[in-house]
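To whoever is on call:

I kicked off a structure prediction for a single chain this morning and the downstream step that reads the tokens threw a length-mismatch warning. I double-checked the sequence; it's 374 residues and nothing unusual in it as far as I can see. Pasting both halves so you can look.
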Amino acid sequence: MTSAPRLTALDALHRSLGATMTDFAGWDMPLRYGSERDEHHAVRTRAGLFDLSHMGEITVTGPQAVELLDFALVGNISTVGTGRARYTMICREDGGILDDLIVYRLGDTEYMVVANASNARTVLDALTERAAGFDAEVRDDRDAYALIAVQGPESPGILKSVTDADLDGLKYYAGLPGTVAGVPALIARTGYTGEDGFELFLKPEHAEGVWKALTEAGEGVGLIPCGLSCRDTLRLEAGMPLYGHELTTSLTPLDAGLGRVVKFEKTTNEGRFVGREALEKAAERAETAPPRRLVGLIAEGRRVPRAGFSVVKDGAVIGEVTSGAPSPTLGKPIAMAYVDAAHAEPGTRGVGVDVRGTHEPYEVVALPFYKRQK
């Protein structure tokens, strides 16, 4: 028997807006409100409003909170200043990626770990288990927050009109407590779209009021509600990995080309952290015989590659597509794929994707496909 999907605090509002809903990681979430392409372009050129309340928040507090996080995660959390955030990962003992995370330092001994919806339980269980022996508490705060994101070039102006917070002083990957539309929120300058934007963590009972206030504030500059479908094409254009596609337990961060998130030089816990030995070996392998590399592929034709399709060259399989979609910004299909290092150089031609038996021509390009002008 499958349980009914969970509903966010904004569920009734999404339905009143005519959203097409979909089951995502056990949550009923808006896939789109109208045209995915229109929503995508709105974020690139104006602003979009997202409900991301399916993400999993886990609070870690106590005198040894940072020691626990440095032990449990691959990043160096002890160097994160109060009010700042860091992208990191949690790995298994064998180096396989359990999830990619953002960790916010809220206070001297208080941190918020934000996990992907599909992995939130796994991350919570792993942190709880790894907390043994540390003077720290791991708290499940998944129901304590709603999460609303406003993303796009007009987002700072829209948010400024409903908050007293100093947004000009808020750097990328920083978060500060403030008031939005009269209610308390953690305002973070983070996102998953490749654009400037903010993520607002607030109490679920305040979500509808804040959504409506932002909608009103954005009316004159073209803000529209956006679903998960355009969030996926936005992050794909920005070359951002998605768990279950570019990141899995069968890959280490080094396999994913994200070795920079692994910090071997930690000073806490005598440098010990879960997965260290396996990741040191993976780092050595990457230097001597790099395995497949994550690359971008741009189609020469119109057919769209999908996750799992084979990448081929001269009749041989040289890789696999992890994400693919039509790119509204580029006007042609794009994909991320792991390909053999010998064929991973940008500009490599003669590469094909096996789309239902036909080898469609693609060019290998460097990621990201799109980078905003600052």
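Update from on-call: the warning came from a stale cache, not from the record. Cleared it. Sanity check on the structure: Residues 276-288 form the longest helix (13 residues).
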